Amino acid sequence: MTTRCVHLDLLEHLDTDAFLLSLRRFIARRGTPMELLCDNGTNFIGGDRELRETFNDMSPRLQELLAGQKIRFRHNPPSAPHFGGTWEREVKSVKTALRVILREQSVPEPVLQTLLVEVESILNAKPLGYVSSDVADFDPVTPNLLLMGRRDASLPQVLYDSNNLLGRRRWRHSQVLADCFWTAFIRHYLPGLQGRHKWKTDGKELTVDQVVLIVDPQLPRALWPVGRVMETLAGADGRIRIARVKVKEKTDTRPVVRLIPLPHLEDDDTDTSGRLS
User: Fold this and answer.
1) Cα–Cα distance between 203 and 181 in angstroms, integer?
2) Can you give the pTM of this predicted structure?
């Protein structure tokens, strides 16, 4: 809830068993959460009930030993999906991009599983904000950094011709789909991070020294360049339309519609609640 980290898993059914198997995989890879926020899906309700019944059937001594590992389920009220707005927004961004790239085609399960993990890495690499004020040390804070404690070290992108791959090499197929996801994601999701004040109100314009995320569809997937605004240029109407942004040792000129301001994060702004959605 605080780091906006995303964990994607492929389930073969929407029943209680499939959910509990997925939860076991999550705990094995990420650790045991203290709290799980969810809606009123039958798989979540059934999983909550089965875990409680299993715990109640244990001996008092075993219950005492495992009490510290109990997971609290917090269900949204019925017919209130907006209570899960934080994670529903992430789910929507994934589903929208997958719907665009997959359409009606059916892909093998290993390809889909690989694609979901690649998508997870893309989402967890997006910048949340920045801490350092030193332009020489200007690495943004990302969910992957908070999750792993180090910078993302994903493999470089490899380009393949999608016209002659489908059905031949499954791992190349997954890479083509991941590229398509990245293209659809930056087209549908990133524009929503900018306030749309056109024809209504005057938005807050960019200023010099502001830290921004640069949206560039030509860059490889999961690459999120962050820089500092060095100069702003106004258009004929007096509005700021163009900015010169310094990224490391290079200065680029970009339109403001391709720049997303990043918030400044305090060094001691941490959360140890252990919540999971």
Assistant:
1) 30
2) 0.61
Tell me whether residue 140 is exposed, middle or buried, using C-beta atoms within 10 angstroms of its C-beta: 0 to 12, 13 to 18, 19 or more.
Answer: buried
- Angle made by CA atoms 231, 240, 214, in degrees to the nearest 5: 65
Helices (H) and strands (E) in the chain, counts: 7, 8
Give the range with max mean pLDDT: 13-22, 60-69, 135-144.
13-22
173 CB-contact burial (10 Å; exposed 0-12 / middle 13-18 / buried 19+): buried
User: What are 253's strand-pairing partners?
Assistant: 244
Q: In what order do the strands lie in the sheet with 72-75?
A: 72-75, 35-38, 275-276
Q: Report pLDDT digits (tens) over 112-127.
A: 888 888 888 888 888 8
Is the pLDDT reported for residue 159 higher than 60? no
Segment (H or E) for 96: helix 85-102
pLDDT at 273: 46
32 residue type, one letter: T
CA distance to 5, 85, 178, 184, 215, per residue, from 221 (Å): 18, 26, 8, 11, 11
Question: Quick one: DSSP state of residue 122?
Answer: H
The Cα–Cα gap between 226 and 247 comes to 6
248-275 tens-digit pLDDT: 888 888 888 888 888 777 665 444 444 4
pLDDT exceeds cutoff 90 at 239: no
Reference 54, options 42, 71, 41; nearest CA is 71
Q: Which amino acid is at 31?
A: G
